[in-house]
Amino acid sequence: MLKNPIPKVTNKLQYRAIGIVNGKFIPHSSEQINRGYITDNKGEKIETVVLGKALSLLKKYIDLEKSYFWIVYPKNKNTQNLHLQVAGIWDPYQLNDVPNDSSKSNFSKLLEKLDLKDNYFSVRGELVFVNTQKKEVVIKICPTSKLQNLKKKNFKLNIKGEISLELLNSFLSLDVLRDGNSLKLINYEVVEKKLK
């Protein structure tokens, strides 16, 4: 069975920010292989850090000359400086148990079967800021609510797009696409109006 790189939501108010980006990972140095950038097929560079469990995959299976689909967590301080954290690598043939029947079926077509595409991000969280003039919104993401005392784990994601001010503090599910070093809102759904 084809494993979805972005798992289905298991809880109505599940916070998350996860996406898939195709490109080559280029480490800053051979001594520090976990830091570098992903260069996409347009030559755009995105600052990237490879997290623990993905680092062992990178060392064992990844040919740094090739492009891969990276499962990533996005972070940014504003709408212009996207930073990615690699959580995994989506390769249905090499790293999953999908039979390689057709000579390497097109990965983009496989993604379409899963209702996904390159540079797609699923973002779920609380709308905490709307800038109507700049057409920007900020979504607050609080990973795993069990760890409420770990306030530092919360982070905010800046996204280009328009959402009504009336939805401030509501919990939203957003479909977002990466455009260069920016995240752009494609559409959103209100999961729960005004939290608190």
CATH superfamily of the largest domain: NigD-like N-terminal OB domain
Biggest sheet: strands side by side, in what order?
Answer: 1-2-3-5-4
CATH topology name of the largest domain? OB fold (Dihydrolipoamide Acetyltransferase, E2P)
* Straight-line N-to-C gap: 41 Å
Shape: globular
Q: What integer value in Å does the Rg equal? A: 17 Å
Helix amount: under 10%
Note the beta-strand portion. 35-45%
Number of domains as seen in the coordinates: 2
Helix-strand pattern? EEEHEEHEEEEE
In short:
The chain is mostly beta strands and 196 residues long. The protein has two helices and ten strands; from the N terminus they run βββαββαβββββ. It folds into two domains: 16-118, NigD-like N-terminal OB domain (OB fold (Dihydrolipoamide Acetyltransferase, E2P), Beta Barrel), CATH 2.40.50; 121-192, Copper binding periplasmic protein CusF (OB fold (Dihydrolipoamide Acetyltransferase, E2P), Beta Barrel), CATH 2.40.50.320.
Protein described:
The protein is mainly beta and 196 residues long. The protein folds into two domains: 16-118, NigD-like N-terminal OB domain (OB fold (Dihydrolipoamide Acetyltransferase, E2P)), CATH 2.40.50.500; 121-192, Copper binding periplasmic protein CusF (OB fold (Dihydrolipoamide Acetyltransferase, E2P)), CATH 2.40.50.320. It has two helices and ten strands, in the order βββαββαβββββ. It has helices at residues 52-61, 107-113; strands spanning 16-27, 35-39, 45-50, 68-75, 83-90, 120-131, 136-141, 155-160, 171-179, 182-192. The protein has a five-stranded mixed β-barrel with strand order 1-2-3-5-4. Strand 1 (16-27) and strand 2 form a beta hairpin. The radius of gyration is 17 Å and the shape is globular.
